[in-house]
Amino acid sequence: MSSIVEDRLRYGRTGGRSLLVPYLTGGIRPDWISYLQEYARNGADAIEIGLPFSDPILDGPTIQEASDRALRRGVTVRGLLDEVARAEIDVPLIAMTYYNLVAHSPSFCGDLAAAGIRGLIVPDVPVDEALPLAASAEAAGVELTLLAAPTTPPDRLAEIARASRGFVYAVSVMGTTGARFAASGGRLAGDLRRLTDRPVLLAFGIATHEDAVTAAESADGVVIGAALMRRILDGGTPEELGAVLAGFRTALDASVR
User: Fold this and answer.
1) Cα 71 to chain center, whole Å?
2) β-pair partners for 54
3) Confidence of residue 2 (pLDDT cuts 50, 70, 90)
4) How many angstroms from the chain centroid is the CA of residue 34?
5) Residue 183's pLDDT band (boundaries 50, 70, 90)?
6) What is the reported pLDDT for 205?
7) Residue numbers of the domain that contains 156
8) Contact status, residue 204 vs residue 183, Cβ threshold 8 Å
9) Which of 104, 129, 199, 227 could form a disulfide with 9 if both were Cys (CB 3.0 to 4.6 A apart)?
10) How far is residue 11's CA from residue 5's CA, in Å, rounded to a whole number?
11) Torsion angle, CA of 78/79/83/86, rounded to 10 degrees?
């Protein structure tokens, strides 16, 4: 299977770069594709696209609000994928959603690949139940990334590190997205990096340049979600969000000099 997501992240890491992966709720605004393009232009190594879901158990209030807004606009997975397929984005795209949406369509992973999305995160699928989805993703050329939390026991952590594709998603704190960044995430990222050579990205609660730099001290990079989505919900334009992401890129680059 080709490893478009992992290869791109490894390439960035090999060049001494702290990896930067921003999140965007698909369909949040009619011009949502413009945010993807601005992220790509301003330092993203990959982009996570949230496919809106009505009951997102892992998402905090900001991402929930974004999903609700997108759903009220009438967006569908099919419509979002059609828009992505027509867009020109030169970094890997990763879909994030919940298993109810995945199970609803037998061709889900193939549909992602056809739209140009090569990564998938399904947070409510645990590692010991992931094999069928992992097989479907692999057959479609999609890399299924698994999550690890600070409370994950060592044997299970090793299993996640072996089974994850693209990268390993380390959650900095128990809770939902937007929770305050915690040092426990740094310890988790360090443990994972001793278990795998696959890139390890730290997420949840990374809201400031200082948070991102601190997280990157123990991980290969960061995922930034709620901090960006809050600005979009408050009216931030694609160009403004591109500038915000460029600020994170600059801070991460300066920290490794």
Assistant:
1) 20
2) none
3) low
4) 18
5) low
6) 85
7) 4-255
8) no
9) 199
10) 10
11) 60
Q: How many CA atoms lie within 13 A of 49 on its CB side?
A: 29
- State both tokens at 14: 């090999």
pLDDT, average across residues 36-57: 92
- Determine the Cα angle at 102 with ends 143 and 116, to 5°: 45
Q: Write out the catalytic residue numbers.
A: 48, 59
Phi, psi of 134 (to 5 degrees): -60, -40
The whole-angstrom separation of Cα 172 and Cα 179 is 9
- Residue 31: Cβ within 10 Å count: 10
Task: Based on DSSP, count helices (H) and strands (E) in the chain, helices before strands.
Answer: 12, 9
CA-closest candidate to residue 49, choices 60, 38, 62, 36: 36
Which tokens is 155 given?
């044997």
Q: Return the pLDDT at 54.
A: 78
Domain tally, the chain: 1
For the stretch 221-256, what's the b/e string if a residue is b when 16 or more beta carbons lie within 10 angstroms of its beta carbon?
A: bbbbbbbbbbebbeebebeebbebbbebbebbeeee
Q: Check which CATH number belongs to the domain holding 244 and give it.
A: 3.20.20.70
Share of the chain above pLDDT 90, in %: 86
What is the rounded distance in angstroms from the CA atom of residue 185 to the CA atom of residue 219? 9
